[in-house]
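Researcher: Please translate sequence to C-alpha cells.
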Amino acid sequence: MGRLAQNLNAIFAIAFRDFLKLLRDRARIFGTFIFPLIFIGFLGGGMQATFGSASGYNFLAFVFTGVLAQTLFQSTATGIISLLEDRQNDFSQAIFVSPISRYSIVFGKVAGETLVALPQAVVIVGFGALLGVGMDGAQVAALIAACLITAVYGGAFGMMLLGVMPSRRAADQLFPFVFLPQFFTAGVFVPINNLPPALAVISLLSPLRYAVDLTRGVYYYGSPAADAVVLFPIWLNLLVLGASFVAFMLIGTILFVRAERNR
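Model: Translation complete:
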C-alpha cells in the first residue's frame, strides 16, 4: 500500500502542477477559450444561417459537437509537449530518479492536461447552449463524460507523438501537420459519410475521428438525426478508443523513458 500511495501522490502532484501552470498563463487561457468559441459561433452559426433553413439540417449542433471533441483532444495532446520543456530544464530527470513508477509520471502528465482541458468543455457546452444548441440534462452529462474520455485519449496520443520528438521546436513544427488534416478526415466541420475510397481509408486511421464520433453519438443518441451524422455505434467507438489508448500509452511511455535513459 505504501508504494501505491506514493505513486498516487506523484500522479496528483504532477497533475496539479500542470493546472497551476495554466492558471498563471493568461495568454494560454485566452487562446484556449476564444478559438473554439469563434469556430462554433462563426462557422457553425454561419452555416446554420446560410444553409440550415433550406436544408432542415442543424449545422450549429454538428459543428458544436465536432469542435468540442477536437478542442479537448488537441488541448491535451499538445499540452504533453511541455514534457520536452521539462526534459530541457532537467525537471523530468529529477522526477525519473525519484522512487516512483515511470507510468505514474506519464499518467500524472496526462491527468494534468486532462484537468486543464475540462474547464474548456464546460465553457464550450455553456456557449453552445447560449447559441441555441438544444441540450437537456442527460445530454449535458453524456457530453461531459465523452469530454473526459476524449481528453484522456488525446493525452495518450500526444504521449505517443512525444516519444519520437527530439525537441520542443520539432514538436511545434510537426504537430500542426499531424492535427490539421484530422480536422477534415475526422469530420469536425463537415460530414464524412461519403468520402472517396482513398480518403475513407485515411479517415479510418485518424484517431480524432473516433473521439468526434463518440461525442456526436452521445449527443444525438435516440434522435432521428443520428443516422445522418453518427458513423459508428457508441460501443464501437469506445472499443477503438480503449484499444488505441492502451497502444498509445505503451508506445509513448517506452519511447519517452528510453529517451531519458539515453541522455
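Researcher: Any highlights?
Model: The two ends are 32 Å apart (CA to CA).
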